[in-house]
Amino acid sequence: MRSLAHKINWGRVAVHIIAYLAGLVWIIPFMGILMASIRPQRELIHGWWNLETVTLSLENFANAWSHPTAPIGAGLKNSLIVTIPATILPLIIATLAAYGLLRIKFRGRHAILFGIVLLLSIPQQMVAVPLFQLLLDFDILNKYSGLIITHTAWGLIWITIFMRNYLTTLPVEVEESASLDGASRFQIFRKIVLPLSIPGLASVAALQFTWVWNDFFMALITLYDPDKLVATQRIPLLKGQYSVDWGVLSAASLLVTAIPLLIFVVLQKYYIKGLIGWTSK
After folding, report:
1. CA distance 13 to 18
2. What is this structure's pTM?
3. Pairwise CA distance, residues 30 & 236, whole Å
4. Which of 37, 108, 136, 242 could form a disulfide with 250 if both were Cys (CB 3.0 to 4.6 A apart)?
5. Per-residue model confidence as pLDDT tens digits over 173-193
6. 253-271: per-residue pLDDT in tens?
7. What's the pLDDT at 205?
8. How far apart are CA 210 and CA 203, in angstroms?
9. 2-23: burial string, b at 16+ Cβ within 10 Å, e else
10. What is the mean pLDDT of residues 201-230?
């Protein structure tokens, strides 16, 4: 018995206990939202954990999807219209910029990189008024293109830094060998760098998609047509004037959360590799 006690790694046990407790703290409010979305409101008066009477139904999801004031189904479609191009465009542009800043030697590239790092410190609230005026001057206010351009410009900053750090982990000898064989810089980038960068690209895509999808502030500035509102703008509109249907509100929240969660599950393998790739150099 004494030898068995010496074999127990108490540090690992403590880490597991802390991890399980953290997971429990996170899952309790989620269970509350889930129960509120699949049970009638009369059964939740004494708490969602009260299981004396349990009636399961998807009626709240149906009501949230086709809500007369702010249907979440239309909001999800609008969010996809904005989020997909606002993820792909900065990913392409920033990866090209990161590769150029890392591999191409030119005067002023360190100053450009320093300026990009400084831009990371600018909060969104600081640019709200000039952004509104700029979109108005270019006649793209209250248009999806205006919000897509806004998220693209905002994402270019951090994606460039992220991808530059990731590209530093790739073997430069492979690129030099391809260059000696006559490959152009763009061919090297397309046929060698991009395939090797899939974990980093997947990590960036998952993060950018999630941040754009969950955005409320920028959408609030750029879109105000009721038919064009994205999903995050519609959730507050589900509250009634005199009462709140928590079942519909909870169901709508789960519907909006499901899309980025699905993206993370699909890209999870590459996401983890991309996050630890350049930090473990």
Report:
1. 9
2. 0.86
3. 19
4. 37
5. 888 888 888 888 888 888 889
6. 999 999 998 888 887 776 6
7. 92
8. 11
9. eeeeeeeeeeeeeeeeeeeeee
10. 93
CB 78 within 8 A of CB 231: yes
Q: How far lies 233's CA from each of 75, 238, 247, in Å?
A: 8, 10, 18
CA distances from 80 to 143, 214, 248, 256 (A): 14, 11, 21, 11
Structure tokens at 222: 């750029």
Give the orientation angle of helix 109-119 with respect to helix 144-167, to 10 degrees. Answer: 120
pLDDT for residue 132: 93
User: How far, in Å, CA of 149 to CA of 114, rounded?
Assistant: 23
Residue with tokens 């949230």: 64
Is 60 exceeded by the pLDDT of residue 3?
no
CATH architecture of 66-280: Orthogonal Bundle (1.10)
Geometric angle at alpha carbon 131, from 79 and 147, rounded to 5°: 15
Structure tokens at 78: 């609008």
Cα 131 from Cα 123, distance rounded (Å): 13
Length of the chain counted residue by residue: 281
